[in-house]
Amino acid sequence: MFKTHSIYNAEIPLIMGILNVTPDSFSDGAKYNQFDKALAHAEYMLAEGADIIDIGGESTRPGAAEVAVAEEIERVVPLIERVKSLGARVSVDTSKPEVMLAAADAGVDMINDVRALQSPGALAAAAACQLPVCLMHMQGQPRTMQANPQYADVVEEVRHFLIERIHACEKAGIASRLLSIDPGFGFGKTLTHNIALLNHLSAFSQLGVPVLAGMSRKSMLGQITGREVHDRMPASLAVALMAMQQGAKIIRVHDVAETADVRKVFIACRKEQ
Ligand code: 7PJ
Questions:
Q1: How confident is the model at residue 239 (pLDDT cuts 50, 70, 90)?
Q2: Rounded to whole angstroms, how far apart are CA atoms 173 and 243?
Q3: Active-site residue 252, yes or no?
Q4: Is the CB of residue 204 below 6 angstroms from any atom belonging to ligand 1?
């Protein structure tokens, strides 16, 4: 059994709280307000029991526009510094090497890249940081990925991709003990693909690096329940439990307190076995 980074060593699944800072206004006042709101939300999620706060300044939702490097740094770095000063563990949700380096300088604990370090310069930047990295699978690019996702065998193809990226990281000097993997629910996947990945999540846990699962409030849950985004908490809790039962080590969520209750149920039942 190889050693993993301490961030992955917990006996119980970690809860990663989602913190998006994607302002749609450019006035200073609105930005300040946005910062204060984000900070308050981080404090709220920490009080609810979040183990990691995932700070993202680039919207990767289907159809979202791209963000310039300087703008993304301006959004995430001050927030990383403040949330770190609260004593929290923080990850940065980015694909840009410059943002990774700036976030590392600001004290971030983990890099979470939906492009699995495939952007030019990202592998080298992450290697220079020597931080834990989450490698996520995505088919296509955010703007167009939901147009017509296609796989012959989604589980096998995503698994193969992640194994390749683990090897690329090792070759670039990022030890496997720093890595976690994520099948990327909703990133270039139909409902059928997402369900197949969820049902076979244990196949990813078996690869020997921790698995992160992010399904919170996603459209796959809207498709199943017919509910709008803010009414998807119960469905999010259901899939969080399914992920925990298949060995996921980090669950990325909006609803931290409720997911912490799910985790209590999971742990209590695991002890009995
Ligand atoms: C994910 C993510 C995910 C990882 C987003 C949203 C879209 N990072 N960043 N996994 N999703 N690792 O939260 O709806 O599933 S942004």
A1: very high
A2: 30
A3: yes
A4: no
